[in-house]
Amino acid sequence: MMPDCKQVQNLLTEYVEGLCSEEERQTVEKHVRGCGECREFLDAMEANEVEITDRSPAAREKTSPKRRRNRILASIMAVVLVFAVVAVAFAYQPNLYYRYLYRGDRIFVNIHLHNLDPSFPIEDYIQTNAYYAGEDQTSFREVASMLYSYSLFSQEFSDFSGGTPLSWERTDQGSTLTASLPGGQKGYYLLDLRVKHELYDQLFPGRDFSAYEVGGTYPIYNLESWDLWDLDFDLTVQSQAYGFPLQMQSSVTCRTQDVMHLSAYLSVGI
Asked: Domain check: are 129 and 193 in the same one?
């Protein structure tokens, strides 16, 4: 390296950016005409093969296009590896996803309709209300007893404090009603679902079903605030030859609790 190479290289940044004085510009151009090393370094800077920083150009690392591509590829591979590790973790531990990433509704309710015209306004004849009773089992029993003590065929939901009516939406060409509620708190929930007697008058006019009820109260216990539940009901309209015009089967499953937790809760007596 020539004695004045360091001085010239300290001027290269300003030279490339057009910020040096006329005297400095002439000094650089005169020097690089006779110094191959500085000429090569200047060409690399002008071709963007080295970074222009505040550090002395003599201390900069020359970066070839191939090296830059390798760095980019390495960064991409690192990101892919992180996503792969996260995907494997969620595949083997799905609760991690529900606990840390899932931010949707927590309790899903579906009513599957059978032998009923899809255009029939069945949602007008179904009363549903959800209740959160807190973590205390005594409060839960009080709410449950209240719901069991009153017939919702003659009582409005407003008579019961703390309830949240569900809004139904149609799916699957009208054969399924769906609803959901936040349910993002640890503790006891109850879903009360009843079929109004007016439905029997619409489906089976002239027959007396005043002593017949379809529906009930379905308890849920959130072991954690991020538990996700599925409540599925199959409501089937029977022929008029049957003594029971409507049949409803229900299932309550939890996506985030194991069977032991679910069975232990459902064994609680009211």
From this structure: yes
